Amino acid sequence: MNEQRAARSVEAVFREDRGRLLALLAARFGDLDLAEETASEAIEAALQRWPLDGVPDKPLAWLLTTARRKAIDRIRRDHAYAERLAILQVESDRAAPVVPAEAGFDDIPDERLQLFFTCCHPALSAEAQTALTLRFLAGLTTPEVARAFLVPTATMAQRIVRAKRKIRSARIPFRVPGPDELPARLPGVLRVVYLVFTEGYAASSGTDLLRPDLADEAIRLARILHRLLPREREVTGLLALLLLTDARRAARTDAAGGQVLLEDQDRALWDVNRIAEGQRLVVPALTGPGVGPYAVQAAIAALHDEATAFETTDWPQIVALYDVLLQIEPSPLVALNRAVALAMRDGPEAGLVVLDELTGADELRGYHLLPAARADLLRRLGRHTEAAAAYRAALDLVGNDPERATLARRLRELTDP
Q1: Rounded to whole angstroms, how far apart are CA atoms 269 and 413?
Q2: First to last CA, the chain
Q3: 146 with 152: CB under 8 angstroms?
Q4: How confident is the model over 385-413, as a mean pLDDT?
Q5: Residues in Cβ contact with 321 at an 8 Å cutoff, skipping those fewer than 6 apart
Q6: With contact defined as beta carbons under 8 Å apart, do 293 and 302 qualify?
Q7: Three-class secondary structure of residue 10 per DSSP
Q8: Which residues neighbour 260 within 8 Å (Cβ) at sequence distance 6 or greater?
């Protein structure tokens, strides 16, 4: 029984605070490999000692102290780490403070913000940034990260190894950017969290529309960032956006996993608690000068969530917000979303004019939602032959099966006698 209780305690601590433990070790020793290895060794030690000695009152502090001792022992034993030991001694001022085993939870510094900025450093590719964030901050195993990218585990393992090697060779520091650097670096961190969420919200490929595991991890990461940077309005805006969007999750698929479009969703299934939390966060995100793109998108999501029916959606206000978003972050993707809202406000012809102007945009090349949106507007205009061609173009590009099924159904409605 003691062994089972110890195992459950280790699992609970490691699941909730793995990111904190790794971040503290990485900040102390400047090496992700060493942090991972010694954290695992501390877990093994806990599984051996806790059934005999009992679970300590401060298990995270116990794991941290044990892992730190094992790291220092390894550095002293291994000549390959000799130079790193010297760096540790010389740079002791920047190292994380030693936390005794009897320290309380609140006495342990939270270094995860340093790890966020290290994993999302601009010297790394966007793919590497996302993989490292999922591995070290979300706590996914390498096979789980591989599944998120839909690649073999061995392939992902090599990518993570190369990314860690890049951190070492480029001497990417484990630190939070200073006030002068933060405005330039923070968007990269937020973008990685948002990309994780979008893959969870609508999978790029596969048999399922949703990847709830990824959506949940993205929201958890956004919450961590919000706790660590509570005054950064775009962090608040991102968390609000994710909550307000994810609130519709239960209504987005039917019992068979098929896609349910926004206009057909049962709004009674929407998560009212997430909507309320997101709405509360939108206010501070929008308050003050220099509103950011995530805050504006959150405001758009809030308008969708506030509508009691699709027909009562405040499309004029949504179009106005997309106009603001285009000024802040001009892109063909934003223009596409605005065109869809414009069609709801002014009619399908108005939206189609804008979509036709976007057909040559490189950013939308291969993006199935452009021909899908054109197809829907052409269908509403009664131009069925053109609509069918657009649906076929979208079917050639769509990645996941539920979206493909929706497009195929729309095409059959136009072409079947």
Answers
A1: 28
A2: 68
A3: yes
A4: 95
A5: 296, 299, 300, 303
A6: no
A7: helix
A8: 251, 252, 253, 254
DSSP 8-state code for residue 237? H
Number of Cβ atoms within 10 Å of the Cβ of 68: 21
Q: HSE on the CB side for 231, CA within 13 Å?
A: 3
Judge contact between 136 and 119, C-beta under 8 A: yes
d(CA 121, CA 135): 15
pLDDT of residue 178: 84
pLDDT tens for each residue of 125-157:
988 999 998 888 887 888 888 877 778 999 999
CB 267 within 8 A of CB 308: yes
Nearest-10 Cα torsion for 279, 252, 216, 283: -10
The yes-or-no verdict on residue 83 having pLDDT over 80 is no
Mean pLDDT of the chain: 87
How far apart CA 408 and CA 403 sit, in angstroms, is 9
User: For residue 347, which of 300, 371, 382 has the smallest C-alpha distance?
Assistant: 382
> Are residues 24 and 109 in contact, defined by beta-carbon separation less than 8 angstroms?
yes
pLDDT higher than 60, residue 85: no
